[in-house]
Amino acid sequence: MPRVSSDHLQARRRQILDGARACFARYGYEGATVRRLEEATGLSRGAIFHHFKDKESLFLALAEDDAGRMADVVAEQGLVQVMRDLLSEPHGGGSVPGADWLGTRLEVSRRLRTDEEFRAKWAQRSEQLTAATRERLNRQHRSGNLRDDVDVDVLTAYLELVLEGLVSHLAMGFPADDMDPVLDLVEESVRRHRSGKV
Fold first, then answer.
1. 104 to 6, 22, 163, 192: CA distances (angstroms)
2. 80: Cβ–Cβ under 8 A, 6 or more apart, which residues?
3. What percent of the residues of the chain are helix, what percent strand, and what percent coil, each to the nearest 5?
4. In angstroms, rounded to a whole number, what is the distance separating the alpha carbons of residues 174 and 188?
5. Neighbour-count burial of 101, counting CB atoms closer than 10 A to its CB (0-12 exposed, 13-18 middle, 19+ buried)
6. C-alpha to C-alpha distance for 171 and 25, rounded to whole angstroms
7. Which of 45, 56, 121, 194 has a CA that sits 20 to 30 A from residue 23's CA?
8. 194 DSSP 8-state letter
9. Which positions of the chain have pLDDT values less than 50?
């Protein structure tokens, strides 16, 4: 039997994650049946579950993948940039997977409220984005660009709440074309104000 290259395995894993993202976003966790996952990915159940132990492992890997992609942007440009990318590229590209990501993110939120076992598993994986945001804010604080009258942990929680609010706003289909000034305000609210500047 010929060996499969690691590039091929990575490409197959990406194909599964991309198809599953669309399926979970459209049908929710419970509605994303194995048959629907097969249709969305274009692969058999054997191929899907060769890469992921079960549907929950696939869903967690998907959510973790999305968080990892955003954490990379946060490390370089901050959490507000992730929000700007969501507004400018609602169908994907750049740092965010697009509209399907919104559905998956809302499904994560729903399961966190209703499934204690999922909540425990997610807690182990969800720290990546928070850690990236906190580290970015700490770097900004050390370089004198961040306000120093509010603790970094409070600013981290604040920015994460704004992200969650933006996700809900977009997922409900509200217009996004007037959000840039709001994000300007959010960004300005965490910056250090120097004397002579308003």
1. 27, 8, 14, 35
2. 159, 183, 186, 187
3. 75, 0, 25
4. 24
5. buried
6. 10
7. 121
8. P
9. 1, 91-95, 196-198
